[in-house]
C-alpha cells in the first residue's frame, strides 16, 4: 500500500563516502537562486505582515540574517542584511500596532520573535538601535508571567511561555546577552512548572507535569495552534482543529534554564522527560497521550512525532550524557530516514528539510558522517522531479517554517554541519 504521507526512500544508505556533487561550489548558486525566488514572492506591504516568524515576512528576514552570517556568502552579506532590515522594520511596525498584548508576546506567531530577530539584524549591521527592540522584548515579560495568561493554554512554543524563553535563548546565543534577569527567568520557569503541576493534578495524571491546549493534552509544539490562536485573536469563528500533539518544547526550555530551578523542580522535569521517553512506539511518539500509532500512515514531522521529540532527548543527552537519551535520538533518526521524505512540501515544520535537520542534529551529537550523507540525500531529493510532481504545494512559498526559507537555512547549514541547528530552536545553547 502506498504511503500517503511520504515518498519511498529508495536511496542506498551510507557506505563510507559523502556525495561528491554537494560541496559549496554546487550549493551556493542553488541557495542564491532559492533566495531570489523567495524575495520575488515575499510581501512588501505593511498590511501583509501577519504570520510572525512562522510564515510571515519576518521569517524571511531571519533566513537572510542566517545566510549572511556564513563566510561562504560574504559577497551577498550586505545586500541580504539590507533587505532583512527592510523586512524586519516593516514587521516591527506591524506588531507595534498590534492591539492584543498576548499576540505581541508570542514567539513564532507574534511580536517577541520579531523583536528578537530585529535586534539580531540591527546588531549585525552595527546599529546601536538594536537596544530598542530588546527593550520591547523585555517588557513583554509582564504579559506572559501570569500563570494562565492565555485561556487556551499558556506554556507552549508558538504563543506561550516556552516560546518567550526560546526567544530569550536565541538572543543569548546570537548576541551574547542574557536579556532577562535571573528573577524574570525563574518566574517564567516556575509558572510553566506550576501550570504543568496543576493540570496533571486536576486530570489525575500518573506523572508530574502535563500541559493542555484548548482542553486538549499535549506536551509541546503544534502548528495547528497557529490556526486556533489566530482564530482566538481575531475572534473569527471557524472550526478549530485541535489536535493532540505529543512533543516536548516546554521541557527543552526548562532544561535549557535548569540552573534557575530548585532541586525539587529539576526532579519533576527529569521525571517528566523519562516518562516521555518511555512513550516511544517503534521509534516514534504518538500525537496523543496513550494513543496507539498506526504504522501505515504515522506522523513523522517536527511538529508531530519523532523529528520534534528527538530534540528533547538531544538536550537531555547534552546535559547528562546518559546513553539512553542518545539512543532515542538515533532511533528517531532511523524512522526519519525511512519515512521523512514528506509530501507536505520542502519546509522545516512538516516537510523534507525538517526531517533532514534531525540528521544534522545526530551528526552534531555523534560526529558520524553517515548523518551528513543522509542529510545530503534529503537535500538532493528536494530538487528531483519526483518531489516536485508529488508534493503538496505550499500557500506561502517564502515561509520560514512551511516554505523555502527554512529549506534555505537547512541547505546552508549542510555546508557547515558542525554549526548546524534547527532555526531559532537550538539545543546547543
Ligand atoms: Zn507542521
TrEMBL record:
Question: Key word Cell cycle present in the record?
Answer: no
Q: Which residues bind Zn(2+)?
A: 303, 349-350
Q: Which domain of life is it from?
A: Eukaryota
Q: Does the keyword Metal-binding apply?
A: yes
A Gene Ontology BP annotation from the UniProt entry: peptide modification
Report what the protein is called. Answer: LanC like 3
UniProt record similarity statement: Belongs to the LanC-like protein family.
What are this entry's molecular-function GO terms? metal ion binding
InterPro entries found in the cross-reference section: 6hp_glycosidase-like_sf, LANC-like, LanC-like_prot_euk
SUPFAM superfamilies for this protein: LanC-like
Please name the source species.
Astatotilapia calliptera (Eastern happy)
Which gene underlies this protein?
LANCL3
* GO cellular component terms listed in the entry, alphabetical order: plasma membrane
The alphabetized UniProt keywords are:
Metal-binding, Zinc
Amino acid at each position: 500500500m502506498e504511503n500517503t504521507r511520504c515518498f519511498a526512500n529508495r536511496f542506498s544508505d551510507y557506505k563510507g563516502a559523502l556525495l561528491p556533487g554537494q560541496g559549496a561550489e554546487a550549493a551556493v548558486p542553488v541557495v542564491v537562486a532559492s533566495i531570489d525566488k523567495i524575495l520575488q514572492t515575499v510581501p512588501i506591504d505593511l498590511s501583509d505582515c501577519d504570520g510572525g516568524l512562522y510564515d510571515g515576512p519576518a521569517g524571511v528576514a531571519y533566513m537572510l540574517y542566517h545566510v549572511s552570517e556564513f563566510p561562504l556568502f560574504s559577497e551577498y552579506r550586505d545586500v541580504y542584511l539590507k533587505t532583512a532590515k527592510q523586512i524586519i522594520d516593516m514587521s516591527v511596525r506591524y506588531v507595534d500596532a498590534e492591539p492584543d498584548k498576548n499576540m505581541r508576546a508570542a514567539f513564532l506567531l507574534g511580536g517577541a520573535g520579531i523583536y528578537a530577530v530585529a535586534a539580531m539584524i540591527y546588531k549585525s549591521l552595527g546599529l546601536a538601535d538594536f537596544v530598542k527592540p530588546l527593550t520591547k522584548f523585555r517588557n513583554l515579560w509582564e504579559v506572559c508571567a501570569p500563570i494562565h495568561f492565555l485561556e487556551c493554554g499558556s506554556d507552549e512554543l508558538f504563543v506561550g511561555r516556552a516560546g518567550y524563553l526560546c526567544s530569550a535563548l536565541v538572543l543569548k546565543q546570537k548576541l551574547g546577552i542574557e536579556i532577562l534577569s535571573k528573577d524574570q527567568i525563574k518566574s517564567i520557569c516556575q509558572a510553566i512548572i506550576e501550570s504543568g503541576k496543576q493540570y496533571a493534578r486536576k486530570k489525575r495524571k500518573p506523572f508530574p507535569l502535563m500541559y493542555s491546549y484548548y482542553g486538549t493534552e499535549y506536551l509541546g509544539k503544534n502548528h495547528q495552534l497557529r490556526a486556533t490562536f489566530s482564530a482566538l485573536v481575531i475572534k473569527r469563528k471557524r472550526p478549530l482543529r485541535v489536535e493532540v500533539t505529543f512533543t516536548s518544547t516546554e521541557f527543552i526550555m526548562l532544561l535549557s534554564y535548569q540552573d534557575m530551578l530548585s532541586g525539587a523542580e529539576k526532579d519533576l522535569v527529569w521525571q517528566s522527560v523519562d516518562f516521555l521517553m518511555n512513550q516511544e512506539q517503534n521509534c516514534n511518539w504518538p500525537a496523543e497521550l496513550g494513543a496507539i500509532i498506526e504504522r501505515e500512515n504515522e506522523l513523522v514531522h517536527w511538529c508531530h512525532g519523532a523529528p520534534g521529540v528527538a530534540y528533547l532527548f538531544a538536550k537531555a543527552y547534552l546535559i547528562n550524557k546518559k546513553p539512553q537519551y542518545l539512543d532515542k535520538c538515533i532511533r528517531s533518526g532511523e524512522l526519519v530516514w525511512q519515512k521523512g521524505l514528506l509530501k507536505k512540501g520542502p519546509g522545516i515544520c512538516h516537510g523534507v528539510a525538517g526531517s533532514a535537520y534531525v540528521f544534522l542534529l545526530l551528526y552534531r551529537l555523534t560526529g558520524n558522517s553517515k548523518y551528513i550523507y543522509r542529510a545530503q540525500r534529503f537535500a538532493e531529493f528536494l530538487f528531483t522531479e519526483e518531489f516536485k510532481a508529488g508534493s503538496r504545494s505550499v500557500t506561502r512559498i517564502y515561509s520560514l517554517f512551511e516554505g523555502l526559507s527554512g529549506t534555505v537555512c537547512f541547505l546552508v547549514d549542510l555546508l557547515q554541519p558542525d554549526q548546524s541547528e534547527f532555526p531559532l530552536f537550538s539545543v546547543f545553547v
